[in-house]
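Bug report (template v2)

What were you trying to do?
Predict the complex of my protein with S-adenosylmethionine.

What happened?
Run completed; filing so the output is reviewed.

Input:
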Amino acid sequence: MWNAKLYDKFSRERIQPSIDLANRIDKVCERILDVGCGSGMSTLALRNRFPEAEIVGVDLSASMLENAKKILPDVKWIQRDCSKSLEDLGQFDLVFSNAFLQWLSDQENFIKNIRKCIKENGILALQIPNFETMMIADIIKNVAKEFDTNGDIFSTMHDNCYNHSLTTYYNMMSKYYSNVEVWQTNYIHQMDSSDAVVEFVKSTALIPYLERLSESHEKDFLAQLKRRTAEYYKPCENGKVLFPFERIFVHGLNSTNGNLV
Ligand SMILES: C[S@@+](CC[C@H](N)C(=O)[O-])C[C@H]1O[C@@H](n2cnc3c(N)ncnc32)[C@H](O)[C@@H]1O
């Protein structure tokens, strides 16, 4: 269950990738679609970069959208499943998606089909957390194994978060788009404590785990996770804990020129 209040607690850290991705778009964009817009943070970065544009934000979560509506009343907000066709929304100069794609099982299908929503020479711009490469991802998996000794809590849990390598994203994009650019940034977040690292992932990567736990089990699971996280994420001399967070960026042009599929 997405929780806008908890998600927005780290708004400074979470908005920066959207700012960086939006700043790489050097075209005039009159119509923009923010897919998986959540609580509106990525949309806010878009609004600041393109003050005159008509922006549409789409997300599945009513509670995230509730928050988005409060911060940007001039955006058109739509609640729906973005793994399904969005073709009826019309065509856009820019389809933007920050930290959403990893929640889809068939990402290539999304990358291919969303072209129907992009004008000729319009842009698809994506940011995907490279979560699987991070130590916190290993810690979560190990604690889940330790916690679920009988295998009856998490064993039925399929991966809800689907991470691919930078090369895979490059290949997927190059199949359907031209002028593809890809890059990776390792953001080093300065957290107040190692517990804050757990707080950070509680509103995203931990959701599928926490959804399977009762209230008391959730408390024990989080306590165990905090202990393990503290063993790895140690404080610096000033007390801050450095939390490296790697993110993959990719964008390309929807062009019918060339040998694209
Ligand atoms: C990590 S948040 C990113 C939100 C926003 N783009 C940002 O940068 O802050 C991921 C969002 O994806 C949404 N989401 C996940 N699966 C979805 C789906 N199938 N259709 C629409 N939204 C989805 C969630 O509701 C959540 O708001």
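What did the reviewer find?
The mean pLDDT is 94. Residues 2, 14, 18, 36-38, 41-42, 59-61, 64, 81-83, 98-100, 103, 204 surround S-adenosylmethionine (CB under 6 Å).
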